[in-house]
Amino acid sequence: MNDSIYVISVSFMLIFLGGLTFHRMTSRRTPEGARALLRPSGRLALMGVLLTAAYVFSLPGVYQVLEAIVPISNGTDFIAKCCAMTAVGVLGVHLAVAYGSETATTWIVGKRGLLVGVIAASGVLFTLLVADTPEASPRLEMYQEQRAVELNEWIVLAYTAYVLVPLLLPVFRDSRRNPLRFGRLASRLIFVGFILSIGRALAYPLELRAGAEAFYIFELVTHVSTACVVLGLWAFAFARSRQLARKTFDTGLSIK
């Protein structure tokens, strides 16, 4: 039952994120070269690539193949988590710019934000090296009871919460003040996704006490959170594609 929940949720996210990224990367409007990352569509395409990679690397078949290449045991898990954290950072920057929040932008990619990112990545690597993980195990599932592995997982959740917290207020404000019904809906979906991600980070001690059986349920919360954010972005894209309230809908929150 637990395996089925994880497979279904991961498959959904792969189809959703993979389709989004393929659409963006094959669009005629997509600029070529590194300049693409300076545009909203480019940032979202990069986020889709990174998140899709993180999910793909965690699939058992892919994981086993990569483990034969990486120099450290379960180094594939470290790569997947770095992809996921980078995707969160890219999404955070995209939303900070789109919502016009200089505070959030500085918080995420300023000196402090970059330092936190380096510390988080270093912490994930260090806890992996300290843990006793001789056999390949996607998401380090076989070693969830080790303290180092618990800390390893919490670092990723904590970094995600760090990026999302300064965005809560601008997202909440837009969910109430956006002149478009779809705009308000989009921000509400994004807000719910953020609350779920931050909530999981805060509830991590409860997750540990709940035991290994609860791992998949909490993982599902993360997938639902991601889906809410992506659906929110699609809602903005729908509004722009229909050119609704074009003069007042001046935002970068579009994946079209």
What does this structure look like?
With 256 residues, the protein is an all-alpha fold. It is 73% helix and 0% strand. The chain contains 11 helices and no strands. The chain has helices spanning 2-26, 40-57, 60-67, 75-98, 102-109, 111-130, 147-164, 168-177, 181-202, 204-210, 215-241. It is elongated. The model is unreliable at 1-8, 21-28, 30-38 and 245-256 (pLDDT under 50).
Write the layout of secondary structure elements.
Blueprint: H1 2-26, H2 40-57, H3 60-67, H4 75-98, H5 102-109, H6 111-130, H7 147-164, H8 168-177, H9 181-202, H10 204-210, H11 215-241
Question: What descriptors fit this protein?
Answer:
single chain, 256 residues, mainly alpha, 73% helix, disordered N terminus, disordered C terminus
Measured as a percent range, the helix fraction is: over 70%
Question: In whole angstroms, how far apart are the ends?
Answer: 37 Å
Q: What structural class should be given to the helix and strand makeup?
A: mainly alpha
Taken as a percent bin, the fraction of beta residues is: under 5%
Molecular shape: elongated
Count of runs of 4 or more consecutive helical residues: 11
Instruction: Give me the strand/helix succession.
Output: HHHHHHHHHHH
Number of β-strand runs:
0
Rg for CA atoms = 18 Å
Main β-sheet: number of strands, strand sense, barrel status? Answer: none
Given as residue ranges, the uncertain stretches (5+ residues, pLDDT < 50) are: 1-8, 21-28, 30-38, 245-256
User: Mean of residue pLDDT?
Assistant: 79
In short:
The protein has 256 residues and is mainly α. Helices cover 73% and strands 0% of the residues. Helix 2 runs antiparallel to helix 4 (75-98).
